[in-house]
From TrEMBL:
It comes from Flavobacterium stagni. It catalyses: Endonucleolytic cleavage to 5'-phosphomonoester. Its cofactor is Mn(2+); Mg(2+). The lineage of its organism: Bacteria, Pseudomonadati, Bacteroidota, Flavobacteriia, Flavobacteriales. Transmembrane segments: none annotated. This is Ribonuclease HII. The gene is rnhB.
Length: 201
């Protein structure tokens, strides 16, 4: 059973990101403050939900939110500051957009950096424990999937519509065959045998 609040503050926001482990595409974060009467039957950690359920509850989450924001950080930023820092930055950027400003932040995972001097708590597997983090995880996942569906049309050979940029065998095979695109994260190990390829030429 998901809990509504971690703190005693009225305006507590939950935040989460999607796409950390991908080879291509942005890392996408969402932050959300819930209305006190917030109640959605199937809400859970987005990884536990089918795509159908995620899309079904997405508009409900937005309607029942007091405030929410979603941010994509592009591969160039990920390559420049690394994926952990990019994930944190994306969540921070979302939080800055919320109105009213949150009084407390709960974050999925175990790493975060202060933003706007707001107190925060990191919570491992928070998306399976708190409604706001679960709601943020659904928004981030859906918005990132939609982004990958859009860029799939530009580069259909990587089948991002299906793999969403994750390191599937099919995705890696396409990288071997076609090389990389502007959407690939160049700081990631895109192929398992990349080092021998680089030095063997």
């Amino acid at each position: 059973m998901l809990k509504f609040n971690f703190s005693d503050f009225e305006f507590e926001c939950g935040t989460d990101e999607a796409g950390r482990g991908c080879l291509a595409g942005p890392v996408t974060a969402a932050a959300i403050i819930l209305k006190p009467e917030f109640s959605i039957e199937h809400l859970n950690d987005s990884k536990q939900l089918s795509e159908k359920i995620r899309h079904l509850i997405h508009p409900e989450i937005e309607t029942q939110a007091l405030s929410f924001a979603i941010v994509h950080l592009e591969p160039e930023v990920i390559d420049e500051i690394n994926i952990l820092n990019a994930s944190i930055k994306a969540m921070q950027e979302c939080i800055k957009k919320l109105q009213p400003q949150p009084q407390f932040i709960i974050v999925d995972g175990n790493r975060f950096k202060p933003v706007l001097d707001i107190p925060f708590q990191t919570i491992v597997k928070g998306d399976a424990k708190y409604m706001s983090i679960a709601a943020a995880s659904v928004l981030a996942k859906n918005e990132r999937d939609a982004y990958m569906d859009r860029i799939h049309k530009e580069y259909p050979m990587y089948n991002w519509k299906k793999n969403k940029g994750y390191p599937t065998e099919e995705h890696r095979e396409a990288i071997r065959k076609y090389g990389i695109t502007k959407y690939h994260r160049k700081s990631f190990r895109l192929l398992p045998d990349q080092l021998s390829l680089d030095f063997g030429i």
